[in-house]
Design goal:
Order of helices and strands: HHHHEHEHEHEEHEHEHEHEHEHEE
Number of strands: 12
Shape: elongated
Low-confidence stretches: none
Mean pLDDT: 89
Strand order of the largest sheet: 2-1-3-4-5-11
Number of helices: 13
Structural class: alpha/beta
C-alpha cells in the first residue's frame, strides 16, 4: 500500500506538504499541488477513507441530485461536463460522489435520504427548486450548493450567466439583419424566466416588436416538442426568419422539421441553439450557439461545497456567475 511518506520521498518534499497538497490546501501552490496529486495517482495511492472518517467525523461522500425529467440521463452533454467538473475536484480531495435521483412528482424527501446516507453535503444540479423536499434540504444543517437557483445570501449557488448568453446571441442575430425572431423556450423555470427577460429586453432596446405567436413552450433537451413548435412557426402567415431553440439537442428536432420542408439552416432560414455541445459542432454547417462552461461550473460548485463542509466557521455563502462564449457556427444567414 502506497503511503504519504512514499509520495513525499518520490516528490522530494515533506510529509506535511504532501498531506496538505492532497487536501487541496491553499497553503500549497497550484503547481506543487497538481504535481503531487498527479504523482500520487500514478503511484496508485488511495486514501484510507475509513480512518479519515473516524478522525474527522466525516464520510467523505457528497451527493449529487439530478432529477431527470426528459429521460436523457447523463447523455445530456451539458450536465455531463458539470458532473465531470464536480468529480475532478471531489476526487482530488479524497471525496466520493453518489448520484441521488428522486421523483419530483412525489415530492421526494431528500433531507431524510441525506441523513440516512450520511452525506457530508449535496450539489443540487437539476430539481424542482420550489418543492418542499428540496427546500427542506437546502434550509437544513446539511451543506448544499445549487445550480441556477439562488435562494438568498445564506445559501450558495453557482449560476450560468444566461443574460449574457442571450444578449450575445440575439445581438449577433440582429446584426445579421433579422427582426422576425421566434423563440422556443423551455418549461417554466428560473432559467427560462431569465432567458425570456433578456430576450425581450434586447428586442425592446432595438425597437423590435414580436407578436405573441412568435413564442412557444417546449421542453429542454427534447427534439419532439421543438419540432412541433417549429412546424407551427412555419405555418404562420408571416413565419420568422430566425428561430431560437432552448438548447442544442432540442434544436436538432427543429432542424429535422426544416429539412423535411426542404429548408436549409444558414441558407433558407436561421436557427440558434444553446449549450455548445460537441455534437452540433460537427453539423454542416455547425450550429450557431452559446457554449456554457460546464467544466468550470462543476469545479466551482464542488469547491464551494467542499469549502462549506471543511471550514464551516469561516465559510461565507455566495452567488457565483460563470460566463460562456458565443459560437458563430454558420446557421445564421445574413439578410
Amino acid at each position: 500500500m502506497v503511503t504519504l511518506k512514499d509520495i513525499a520521498r518520490e516528490c522530494k518534499v515533506s510529509f506535511s506538504t504532501v498531506s496538505k497538497a492532497l487536501k487541496g490546501s491553499p497553503e500549497i501552490s497550484f503547481e506543487t499541488t497538481e504535481f503531487i496529486q498527479k504523482k500520487a495517482h500514478e503511484m496508485g495511492y488511495h486514501p484510507n477513507i475509513a480512518a479519515r472518517s473516524l478522525r474527522t467525523n466525516r464520510t467523505y461522500d457528497i451527493g449529487v441530485i439530478f432529477e431527470d425529467k426528459t429521460g436523457a440521463g447523463f447523455q445530456h452533454q451539458y450536465f455531463a461536463t458539470i458532473i465531470s467538473g464536480i468529480q475532478k475536484v471531489a476526487f482530488s480531495k479524497g471525496y466520493e460522489m453518489t448520484f441521488v435521483s428522486g421523483d419530483s412528482t412525489k415530492n421526494y424527501d431528500y433531507y431524510s435520504h441525506a441523513l440516512a446516507r450520511n452525506y457530508d453535503g449535496l450539489a443540487i444540479l437539476s430539481a424542482d427548486f420550489n418543492s418542499s423536499g428540496i427546500q427542506e434540504l437546502v434550509k437544513s444543517e446539511i451543506p448544499t450548493v445549487t445550480l441556477d437557483c439562488f435562494y438568498d445570501m445564506e445559501h450558495s449557488a453557482v449560476m450560468s450567466d444566461y443574460t449574457a448568453g442571450i444578449n450575445e446571441l440575439l445581438e449577433y442575430v440582429i446584426s445579421m439583419g433579422h427582426k422576425k425572431i421566434a423563440m422556443i423556450h423551455g418549461e417554466q423555470t428560473w432559467v427560462t424566466e431569465q432567458r425570456m427577460e433578456a430576450f425581450k429586453k434586447v428586442c425592446a432596446d432595438h425597437g423590435i416588436k414580436l407578436p405573441p405567436e412568435y413564442f412557444a413552450e417546449g421542453l429542454y433537451h427534447d427534439p419532439v416538442t421543438s419540432s412541433a413548435a417549429t412546424e407551427v412557426f412555419l405555418s404562420l402567415p408571416e413565419p420568422p426568419t430566425c428561430i431560437f431553440y432552448p438548447d442544442d439537442y432540442a434544436a436538432l428536432g427543429g432542424i429535422r422539421e426544416l429539412n423535411s420542408r426542404g429548408l436549409t439552416p444558414g441558407k433558407d432560414i436561421s436557427v440558434v441553439g444553446y449549450d455548445g455541445i460537441a455534437l452540433t459542432s460537427m453539423m454542416i454547417p455547425p450550429l450557431t450557439t452559446y457554449e456554457q462552461n460546464g467544466e468550470v461550473i462543476g469545479r466551482t460548485m464542488a469547491e464551494s461545497l467542499l469549502a462549506k463542509i471543511e471550514t464551516p466557521q469561516s465559510y461565507t455563502p455566495k452567488k457565483e456567475m460563470v460566463s460562456g462564449r458565443l459560437i458563430k457556427g454558420g446557421t445564421v444567414v445574413k439578410l
